[in-house]
Write a structure and sequence with these properties.
- It contains ten helices and five strands, in the order H-E-E-H-H-E-H-H-E-E-H-H-H-H-H.
- It has about 210 residues and is an alpha/beta fold.
- It has a five-stranded mixed sheet.
- A hairpin with an 8-residue loop joins strand 1 and strand 2.
- Helix 3 packs across helix 7 and helix 4 packs across helix 5.
Length: about 210
């Protein structure tokens, strides 16, 4: 039930939390493009399950539904922050550290300082407020689900733009993931600057070109 998705928000609000931020990322698995994270704070004390009856984590939605919810979330939220970490950082520090960096960016870019942060699975240290990492949080917590939608739409739009700069890989369609089309293009064209050279398929394609 959609109402159950808000149970974390309702409990924390009952405990006195006013500004609760949900945080999620997208783009850990692709062979190309940045990792993007988003943080979302909704106003407290509202029956949000009635406002967002179709809200769920981004992978359970169509592209059109995500776009519609993206606009609704941006309008309803007290604050939205987005963090983006490029392929150079990913290759230097690894994808987990890049994910944490993107999430930290997203939180710090919120125009309202959160009282409490709920994060999908990943733990982040050093924040000035309590942090709770929730396994499968995007499926269990509305604020994290909303963050997953913001991050997904933002990153998808980036990859559509990058498709114009680096044609031939199908970035507008595959968003950098290792689809058969993308892997075939890697073999044919070799990697481009948007590719993650620390990921094995990209590294092997580069070696084959040398």
């Amino acid at each position: 039930m959609t109402e159950d998705l808000w149970r974390y928000e309702l409990k924390l609000q009952a405990d006195g939390v006013v500004h609760l931020a949900g945080v999620d990322e997208v783009g850990r698995g692709p062979l190309a493009g940045p990792v993007v994270a988003a943080a979302v704070i909704f106003p407290p004390a509202k029956r949000w399950h009635e406002v967002f009856p179709t809200l769920r984590e981004s992978k359970q939605l169509t592209a059109r539904q995500r776009e519609e919810l993206y606009e609704m979330i941006c309008q309803a939220a007290v604050a939205v922050g987005i963090g983006e970490v490029d392929v150079e950082y990913i290759d230097k520090y690894n994808i987990l550290q890049a994910t944490r960096a993107a999430m930290r960016q997203a939180i710090l870019k919120l125009k309202v300082v959160p009282d409490y942060v709920l994060i999908d699975a990943v733990w982040i240290e050093g924040l000035s407020c309590p942090v709770e990492a929730i396994t499968h949080g995007d499926k269990r917590c509305a604020s994290i689900a909303a963050a997953s939608i913001i991050a997904k739409v933002y990153r998808d739009r980036l990859m559509v733009k990058w498709d114009q700069t680096y044609p031939g890989y199908g970035f507008a369609r595959n968003k950098g993931y290792g689809t058969p089309e993308h892997l075939a293009a890697l073999t044919r064209l070799g990697p481009c600057p948007l590719h993650r050279f620390s990921f094995k398929p990209v590294r092997l394609a580069q070696e084959a070109m040398n």
